[in-house]
Amino acid sequence: MDRIILHCDMNNFYASVECLYNPEIRDKPVAVCGSQEERRGIVLAKNYIAKNYGIKTGEPVYTARQKCPNLITVKPNFNLYMKFSKNARKIYSDYTDLIECFGIDECWLDITGSVKSFSDGEKLAHEIKERIKNELGITVSIGISFNKIFAKLGSDLKKPDAITSISRENFKNKIYNIPVEELLYVGRSTKTRFNRVCIYTIGDLANSDLQFIKDILGKNGQTLWFFANGYDNSPVCKIDYEACVKGIGNSMTTPKDLCTNDSVKLIFYVLSESVGERLRKHNLKGKTIQISIKDTDLNYIERQGKLSIETYSNSEIAEKAYDIFKKSWNWVKDIHALGIRVTDLVPSDEYIQTSFLDDTKSQKREKLDCSIDSIRSRFGHYSIQRALLLTDNLQSLNPTAKDSINSISFFKGGNEK
Q1: Is the N-terminal amide bond of 23 cis, ω within 30° of 0?
Q2: 125-138 residue pLDDT tens
Q3: Residue 35 in contact with residue 155, Cβ under 8 Å?
Q4: Which helix (H) or strand (E) holds 289?
Q5: Is the pLDDT of residue 237 over 50?
Q6: CA 203, CA 180: separation in Å to the nearest integer?
Q7: C-alpha distances in angstroms, 99 versus 6, 10, 82, 106, 110?
């Protein structure tokens, strides 16, 4: 028997929870948004009434208001959302221990061992859907299929409060006419590259020559071709599975547009405080530094470079990021947002080959950062700060604030996310 995989996606999660706790706004257009005062005013989630006005997740609040002048905006309450997410996982755990989270509101479930047939899996999916509605007060869409990729695709096909089955017998009829960008891990640039060679649908990709796709996108193209043809065999990891951290990063929409190298340098030091601290917390060091830059027209680029040896030093991360920036940016536009990410990670207690020509500066920096961590854990983050940050009004920025975007990338079952 094929595996039976569910993908459960709670509908408009943030907005649904907010409407549940605020009955007076349930019948009105609602969007959960970041702070407009701190220029993080984008739509994080919206209810279906707001969606009918054309409001999209990720768009600026001001454009959302242009589409819907009576839009109600609320600030996110992440602690409340985590509570609902944990309660949903408790329901899922009544049916299987093979539960893999894909964000706060989505999970894959492998229920192969809990049912005898695909039709029994559909009945179980209906049971889970009704329990989420009755016990949590929100709705969920569930895709059911013989692999993770098609289960995820199924949960996206019909919303809200719906179940979509994609079996081995019907998957070509159900998904081959769907735009290729709906396939998991096909982003904007990948879609563009596919469209250039007349690949517009999942069926187009599935029916293409594998070597042709590999020539276009390399190993990633081969993976996507396998996905389109239903060859995904990646397992659903157990709920207590310890994933390997592949990268740690932080990004920030700046309080004001940046127009000088000095202001960029300050932001990199702010971000590196968080990145370095979290590397040390996970007992990791990294060798590759990646930066992301978004200009005032919201155009986005990424660049990276390698250090001579692995590090978790705040200063070395910031200095390398700034060096990459100076080689990559020509100031045609001012900067709206910046990010730093450290990859090529190794355990910090692992032996690392150093050069006989290196001095002890790096080791001294790392010991200093560890000492600062100890002080901050006892007396708070602002008990000790860099003098560099005190020269600008950016010293009030907290690199661990909820509005900055901290990211940890994991490697699970052959897929990086």
Answers
A1: no
A2: 999 999 999 999 99
A3: no
A4: strand 284-295
A5: yes
A6: 8
A7: 10, 15, 16, 10, 7
**Which of 239, 8, 5, 185 is CA-nearest to residue 106?**
8
The domains found in the chain, sorted by start residue, are 1-169 (3.30.70.270), 176-241 (1.10.150.20), 244-416 (3.30.1490.100)
Distance CA 85, CA 77 (A): 13
In this structure, are residues 42 and 61 in contact, taking their beta carbons and an 8 Å threshold?
Answer: yes
**How far apart (Å, rounded) are the C-alpha atoms in residues 215 and 222?**
9
Which residues lie below 8 Å from residue 354, measured CB to CB, with a gap of 6+?
309
Q: In whole angstroms, what is the distance from residue 290 CA to residue 285 CA? A: 14
Task: Record the tokens describing residue 178, joined without a space.
Answer: 């769907």
Matching residue, tokens 């990410």:
341
With CA atoms as reference, report the closest residue to 150 among 357, 4, 305, 296: 4
Q: Which residues, including other chains, have CB under 8 Å from residue 275's CB and lie 6 or more apart? A: 248, 249, 250, 314, 317, 340, 341, 342
Write out pLDDT tens, residues 295-319: 888 788 999 999 988 899 999 999 9
Token representation of residue 267: 């932001």
Cβ atoms of 200 and 179 closer than 8 Å = yes
Tokens 């039976």 correspond to 4
Residues 286-315: b if buried by 16+ CB within 10 A, e if exposed: bbbbbbbbbbeeeeeeeebeebeebbbbbb
**Which of 313, 294, 312 shows the shortest CA–CA distance to 302?**
294
Evaluated on CA atoms 416, 407, 294, 324, the torsion sign reads negative
The residues assigned a catalytic role are 106
Alpha-helix residue ranges (DSSP H) falling in 178-298: 188-196, 202-206, 210-228, 261-281
Distance CA 12, CA 38 (A): 24
